[in-house]
Amino acid sequence: MVEPFEEQPGILNVVSGYTGGHVANPTYEQVSSHTTGHTEAVEITFDADTISYPKLLDIYWQQTDPTDAMGQFQDRGDNYRPVIFVKDDAQREAAEASKTALAASGRFSDPIVTQIEAAKPFYPAEPEHQQFYAKNPRRYALEHAQRQAFIDKTWKDQ
Questions:
Q1: Which end of the chain, N or C, is more open, meaning fewer C-beta atoms within 10 Å of its C-beta?
Q2: pLDDT, tens only, 41-84
Q3: Which residue numbers delimit the Peptide methionine sulphoxide reductase MsrA domain (predicted)?
Q4: Which domains are assigned to the chain?
Q5: Which pLDDT tens digit goes with each residue over 113-156?
Q6: Choice between 149 and 95, residue whose per-residue pLDDT is larger
Q7: What is the 3-state secondary structure (H, E, C) of the chain?
Q8: What is the rounded distance in angstroms from the CA atom of residue 135 to the CA atom of residue 129?
């Protein structure tokens, strides 16, 4: 999820990490054990004068399978569930509106299961999990191919 956002003008920072759980400062191993309640997520800092929150939502929808409640592509489990964490009522309204519009678009035959939840404490992932795509280009290329095939099929008319 980092690369598609980092490529956009107005994105100041993208950090990989964990949020939504009940353990302070979780490690990757703890989150992967499915016992902390955390979801792997990215925290995005952006310049709203350059890129709008609705544009960020558009990018998000085009990177995920919003009909898969138990993971994303090769990443399986509740820690990979599709969720948008919002910081305030304005973000919630925009996220709900974009979710409703996506559901009404007919692009997906299955229901949109992406959750929209209030932001909770965010814990940056360990350094080796930051910039995964740049640090692990071979592995990322293999994983990216599966995601890209889905994106190309689902979003080809955009």
A1: C
A2: 999 999 999 999 999 999 999 888 898 877 665 665 576 689 99
A3: 2-141
A4: 2-155 (3.30.1060.10)
A5: 999 999 999 999 987 766 665 555 566 566 666 666 766 677 66
A6: 95
A7: CHHHHHCCCCEEEEEEEEECCCCCCCCHHHHHCCCCCCEEEEEEEECCCCCCHHHHHHHHHCCCCCCCCCEECCEECHHHCCEEEECCHHHHHHHHHHHHHHHHCCCCCCCCCCEEEECCCEEECCHHHCCHHHHCHHHHHHHHHHHHHHHHHHHCCC
A8: 9
Q: Which amino acid is at 108?
A: F
What distance in Å separates the CA atoms of residue 81 and residue 65, rounded to the nearest whole number?
Answer: 10
